[in-house]
Amino acid sequence: xxxxxxxxxxxxxxxxKYLNDESVSSSTGMGFVVDDPxxxxxxxxxxxxxxxxxxxxKKIFMDEQTSQKxxxxxxxxxxxxxxxKNGWNDGKLGKLMELARESIKDLHKTFKDVDxxxxxxxxxxxxxENNENLIKDLENFLEENNIYYDYITxxxxxxxIYIDDNGYRFTNxxxxxxxxxxxxxxxxxxx
Length: 191
Known about the structure:
191 residues, alpha/beta
């Protein structure tokens, strides 16, 4: 019995070490990682993971793409929920955009079987080394302003629609490329 207990303890220790292994990520180096060591996703409930195709070690995953039961609406944070009037401002948040709370509440009420996901580069460790603090500030902002959401991500994940101030609705390269180039030139302040 003592040997069995010792073996079980080793198995549990190995599994716990696996859960905290920071090398577990998606094929892009980001993703819905177990315990989210990179800070890309903050979720209110169960986290999902994307299998790491590069990792040769056999690991147990729940594939996010096949396990996700609900479709998603992705809503950008800056200039869609948050006014961003002062720019990045060292990550300090400004004011709530007009009608953001009511509109998101309406989407959630109308589409009960759809997850509302807030996406922002603030949650992305590749963009911000202090992303954990930025995510906490973001969560506080959303709660203080009574904004409904299911989870937060710094990644572009599959969705029914992306609500984003910098988005461009692509139709085809022949007609869209000149428009895209013009938008980029204007945003960069070049001619």
